[in-house]
């Protein structure tokens, strides 16, 4: 149930509603948006609608009909801005996250961090804990990798996003990482999602290759139900009969998710297509479709990468792509890149 | 086999190669591109490579390894421009084709034609022969519909694209239509493709919901093998587990096809997503991905359309979309819209 | 609308209902089943329910809610038996159709016909008109192939099923063939379906690789709407992300179709899996799932077949499979094979 | 690398090979099969082939080319029998596992256990830890549920299979459960697989809705790489464009897996189709396709089940199905049911 309050309610009014709901056996979630306070009550079916409606400051009580509640537009009409320090995902600025598939060593990470930061990325990506289909593939540098990422990111003014596969990864990841990534294979690892719901850290939740839109939003709901509302959704390709590309990028997920949820939506074109020269067209298309950001694999020397080199952009390709994406962002009234986006005077062809 | 000739070969040289190949039992295809002449020999496995290589003007003989030959980039490296009068599909200009799902009457078609022409469309779409899943659904106005389309298009300076389902449709369609559309359900109707291969009319070939990229190019090859090289490919969504959208737009088909073939590639976002408010984001994304054009359902009164109204744009929505698409086209160094595209001075935000 | 008549109505009663419906603008379909007469009226929305209900012999008027009407169980509760001479598809006996992918010559067809007839097949399959993805693949022997099939089938007491791709194939096919097959690529070739609806010949309608159950039944409805009720449905694999098998056999289509329609359902495991050693397990499973028959590729020398040899059973494999299938059929209370099925006394292991 | 030893090698010979391999940096896996000893060395690429080949008792060294090694038929040609007390999965007997989706209480579990045991099931299934798409759905009784299962199973002579979602579930599950199930959502939860690899407990590994055959076998490899070779594979439906059934049962996975691996393969038709009346046909088909067993949802009162009642068989339906399956098993030379399978004398119709 969504409980709408009059504009700028007093804290006392809010607390009274909260107390009433708690005492009736409901858990209460609260989001504050530009002078508006949204309350969501989750619990028993026979909601005491009359009693709550009579409380001072309450203007309306609405049933949220979707299976996901806190994640739904029905609950919260305005877009969520997930702040990572001074970087905001989901606002007017389109955010680029870039870096290698896997952290291989300090030199590699530094060179890539410098390159992507100069080109306009705001967040450094890189895998330290690597989920691999085969037990015999390279499994990542672990905590050592996280430290390398942190140091390089700090040097070049970047935030860090990195994958956690497991509850045991949360403690070190919280120390070194700004955004905790849940990989496609763990999108319904409910134990992990429950643990993340108790943290005060942004979570980047990747859709799995056969996850429906509703399942993805229910997985986001797991994280939000525990009180962590800082969820960023990410489409990275679904499994279809297509064999030419690694997966099939479902770009229509962007407008569909924007309709159903207030959470930010970013795209990972690298994993979706799996072929270097197909990444840039799909990255541009993602911005044009309305994505709030991109997460891209970039490597200073893709041909010698330990993992997924064939789908990594070179630093030069990334620089060109950034300029194109910035110009497309402008068409949609958004910005991207250094100093709050490309200077509009340079936006002509 | 691809036979490459020296730059600007004499017609006599070309004819001698042709004669030799024909007498050895091969069919010979010829494309002329900016001073370059490409010859393709199709036939028996034991190609007389030595004898042909020795002919004057022949510089190189290359095996085309793909299953499709004439459609492949291996045969022809430069992009094919399909000219429809003064409208060129596959060149620098991005072409918009727009109109109703089905022709319903003269007034409807005129109002839509006027609107889409003003907004920048170059081609009018509209179904006169309608393939419908159920025998009890509206099956189109037939030849009467084609006449209505032609008249409206002529009034507003548009070309006409319309679907043919059958050999019996070809004669009237050739009289009234500029581009013959093969629908998704007929992408492997080889009888129809063979008949189209003998015409001198551009063909818009739609990918089916489960057609692989290679199958689509082999269907194009059917049309080209008979001598009709004017084929425009169209992606319109594939079938996946997604249920929120009507189909799943496989936008990565654009860069994949651009890699494999020299034929133009356009996108039909209306059928792909099937929901009005998702069409514009996917249309913009298509341009950003490098599509050569769009085919869109537009209706002056979508809610009373006889067919697919829920996925048709209003004329107002189409006008806004056209401007956005024109600006994105500029980012890619292309043009779109009235008078060869948006004036670049107005391209800022 | 389904109009139910009292048991054993007089012909006059039936004709009066028919006349009333025709004069009200409806087309009227009639099926006679063991003393029961079913009438279906198709036409305008405002059905004259009251007037018809009052006619002598009419007991009930029921709305058929599915998009397919004549094909639905709602219209006809009892199973349709499609008789092909003395062979009945859809009855207690499970029918095997077997033969080569393509007719290659008289000797080949004779050897295979003899083998499959001895093993228990009742129908000979073989392609004379071959739809091929590439224009450069073997396209079949055409009418000559049909004659070869007919002769071999007559020699060994078999019926013939063969594919038609086109209206121009219907005339010769009707002369030489007992069951006209519509291939997966033509499942929504409505021109072809309409032409078949006017014939008095059984039609084997194959589901396409991305055809939904509802679309398949609507395609059957196209054939039935013209008055040809002898439709046999065939599942032959759908397209999924699986790459190990050629397609993914959707065996649950058998119970699903049995629920929705009274038409017989057979399975083509050869095209579904595309690998010889996977065919027999899937054939056995099809019988166990309740299929009314199988259509199988069998070749006396698969390794030298011109088409699809890798998925053809040898004659020896077919003989073993027939015995296994006959035993499984017995478990379901059905028969299969020579003289109305395996002797039940030999059915133990 | 597979190291083959002469028949009945001495323990000393085996140990010497093992020592050599360990000292060269390899991990060594050993399986003993009817007098044959199989050794598998996993580790660095430059295998000391010459040195090992010279050791006494070594007859052949073969490279295992698949990405999965211990799970491959290349490593072990004969079928693995997973023994659960006196119940053997993967042998001549087809094993039925049956029970409710979720454990709801003692009475429910007892009634179902009694019914399925009488009908011929050997293993009781039931969820105590329930992975649910929505955080607001019933999540299971936890350890209490495991105790209820254990007690009921012991009373009626059954083994127990139940799902673990998490490392924290392993300790209680090992105490009360005979086979640990990994659900479809956790098929690539590598942390969980690694933990299971260190246990001496059979694992039932379910394929996910978009898991390829190779990925499934690599997930099995994770469990085997740690030394736990008791893995049972389970197909439970994949995601396709079909909407009529919950998932699409990929029954061809049975012959495909039997070709690639020596591990037992069972089928879960209940989750695959999701509709009660479709379960029995698919269960019969599974046996006919060669499955080693079934895991089925059975409930004494499906309409009041807390979870998945619409796909649960009644006890009566389960009894009928068991008899049919036993008869089909006999056709394949296998047994099923009470006292080592149906009495063959009663197998006639």
From TrEMBL, chains A, B, C, D:
GO terms for biological process: aromatic amino acid family biosynthetic process. One of its GO terms (molecular function) is aldehyde-lyase activity. The gene is aroF. This is 3-deoxy-7-phosphoheptulonate synthase. Residues 86-319 form the DAHP synthetase I/KDSA domain. The keyword Mitochondrion does not apply. The keyword Transferase applies. It is an enzyme of class 2 (transferase). InterPro entries: Aldolase_TIM (IPR013785), Class-I_DAHP_synthase (IPR052899), DAHP1/KDSA (IPR006218), DAHP_syn_2 (IPR006268). Keywords: Transferase. SUPFAM superfamilies: Aldolase (SSF51569). Its EC number is 2.5.1.54. Coiled coil: none annotated.
């Amino acid at each position: 149930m969504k409980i709408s309050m009059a504009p700028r309610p007093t804290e006392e009014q809010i607390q009274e509603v909260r107390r009433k709901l708690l005492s009736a056996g409901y858990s209460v979630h609260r989001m504050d948006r530009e002078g508006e306070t949204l309350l969501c009550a989750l619990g028993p079916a026979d909601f005491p609608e009359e009693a709550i409606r009579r409380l001072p400051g309450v203007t309306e009580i609405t049933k949220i009909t979707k299976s996901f509640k806190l994640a739904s537009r029905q609950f919260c009409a305005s877009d969520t801005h997930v702040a990572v320090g001074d970087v905001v995902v989901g606002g007017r600025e389109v955010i680029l996250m870039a870096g290698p598939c896997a952290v291989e060593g300090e030199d590699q990470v530094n060179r890539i961090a410098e390159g992507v930061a100069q080109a306009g990325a705001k967040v450094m990506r890189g895998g330290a804990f690597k989920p691999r289909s085969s037990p015999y593939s390279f499994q990542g540098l672990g905590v050592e990798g996280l430290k390398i990422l942190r140091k390089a990111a700090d040097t070049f003014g970047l935030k860090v996003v990195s994958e956690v596969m497991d509850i045991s990864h949360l403690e070190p990841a919280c120390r070194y990482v700004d955004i905790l990534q849940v990989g496609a294979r763990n999108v319904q690892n409910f134990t992990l999602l429950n643990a993340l719901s108790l943290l005060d850290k942004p979570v980047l939740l990747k859709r799995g290759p056969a996850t429906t839109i509703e399942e993805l939003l229910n997985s986001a709901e797991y994280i939000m139900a525990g009180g962590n509302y800082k969820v960023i959704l990410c489409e990275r390709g679904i499994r279809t009969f297509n064999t030419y590309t690694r997966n099939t990028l479902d770009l229509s997920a962007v407008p569909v998710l924007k309709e159903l949820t207030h959470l930010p939506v970013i795209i990972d074109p690298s994993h979706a297509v799996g072929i270097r020269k197909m990444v840039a067209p799909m990255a541009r298309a993602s911005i044009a479709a309305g994505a709030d950001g991109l997460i891209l694999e970039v490597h200073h020397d893709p041909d010698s990468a330990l993992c997924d080199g064939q789908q990594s952009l070179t630093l030069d390709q990334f620089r060109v792509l950034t300029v194109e994406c910035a110009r497309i962002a402008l068409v949609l009234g958004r910005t991207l890149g250094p100093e709050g986006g490309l200077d509009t005077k340079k936006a002509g062809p």
